[in-house]
Amino acid sequence: MATIKEEGAVPDFLRMDAETGSVPANDGRKGDWYGWPSKEVKPVTLLDDEGRAVRIRTPVMDLEGLITPTNLHYTVQHFDVPEVVPTDKWSLTIEGEVKNPVTFSFEDLRRLPGRTVRTVMECSGSDATFFEYFQGEGPKPSRTQECMILSASEWTGVPLATVLNEAGLTDKSLFIRAEGWDQGVPATADEGTEPFFYDKGLAVQKALHPDTILAWAQNGQLLEHLHGAPVRLLVPGWSGNWSVKWLRRLEVMDHMPACWYHYQFYYYAVSPDSTDKELITTIGVKSIVTHPNDDTERMSTGPHMVRGYAWSGAGAITQVEVSVDGGETWNAAHLEPPVDRFMWVRWSYPWDAAKKGQYNIMSRATDEVGRVQSREPRYNNMRKNFSAIVGYPVIIE
């Protein structure tokens, strides 16, 4: 076993190999720490005028495993981040079409039977620039350089159904309007629109799903403010805009509420004036190649392990296929356990690149309800929910 001869010295097993010039996988640590942390991975972060982080994009291509570290988990909000509400000052009101209107404190919620859910969360606007690329109107975007609006976490809280049962639903309880503390006016709203709290109207069937929860913890720790503390709504399988942060009020209704971020922003249609708009809910079936990443231009001949992630909002992934010839032929990849309902799955495919030449690596996912990742995106004027197959060209030399 290698030993450290003096304080601060580098152990022999961590030194650069003089012959190959290679460095160990944990190169990039800071100071005198020679443990096993990976090299520092940073998200793309947008700061406000006071230097506080307000939006984060996740460096998915640089990560391992299934859980996104909390500090790298993406965040998006349409209005300014609200002021912090201490847990002892926070409350949640449930009113409307219920038998017993009720108000919960933070501790009231934590006394109820809890539930932990692991899920992918993806913004509807993730990969939106690929729509232009597929239409030949721009260069291929780099997921490695731009990072992604896509992450996965373990969330802990109480099922929304438990809380609604406390209030008592009626035959007229059809939608649950969730309202957060973030308030503002959308940039594209009509002139004269008054500021309003961000809200979404969840169908009661989804609200009562046992994995739809009011979350107060993420990845083993109480929620951080940027991620919706003290309590946020978590709607697994649906686009991230449904998981309302900084929750303050639940209104049970007998009709779909006219939330601005329904048919003004998160919808499928060919134009803003379309009379045939479809509300965006479920995340598409999707896969990405993370190794080689989309900035890798050249590789040597010989064996390589192609790796990536696959996920779907409608069901667990049952198959991932890999093509190295631009989709002409496909081969089954190995799905690395575990394979969970709302979580993404890691997949891997051993590729023996024996011949020099140009290749185009692609992956294609299938979920348990039979949805197959498509070659063409579902075009819509809002550029939402891109999920098409993307090729990764590489030269073997």
Give an account of the 3D structure:
- The chain is mainly β.
- The strands form six sheets. A five-stranded mixed β-sheet has the order 4-3-12-7-8.
What attributes characterize this protein structure?
single chain; 397 residues; mainly beta; five-stranded mixed sheet; five-stranded antiparallel sheet; 23 strands; 8% helix; disordered N terminus
Strands of the widest sheet, in order across it, are 4-3-12-7-8
Mean pLDDT: 91
SSE order: EEEEHEHHEHEEHEEEEHEEEEEEEEEEE
- Strands, total number: 23
Largest sheet: 5 strands, mixed
* Structural classification: mainly beta
C-alpha-based Rg, rounded: 23 Å
How many DSSP helices? 6
User: What percent of the residues sit in helical stretches (DSSP H or I)?
Assistant: under 10%
Unreliable stretches, pLDDT < 50, 5 or more residues? 1-10, 12-23
Layout: helices, strands, pairs:
Layout: E1 44-47, E2 53-57, E3 91-96, E4 102-105, H1 106-110, E5 115-122, H2 130-134, H3 143-146, E6 150-159, H4 160-167, E7 175-184, E8 196-203, H5 204-207, E9 213-218, E10 221-222, E11 232-234, E12 247-253, H6 260-263, E13 267-268, E14 278-279, E15 286-291, E16 298-299, E17 302-311, E18 317-323, E19 331-332, E20 334-336, E21 345-353, E22 357-367, E23 392-396
Parallel strand pairs: 3-12, 16-23
Antiparallel strand pairs: 1-2, 3-4, 5-6, 6-9, 7-8, 7-12, 9-10, 9-11, 13-14, 15-17, 17-21, 18-19, 18-22, 20-21, 22-23
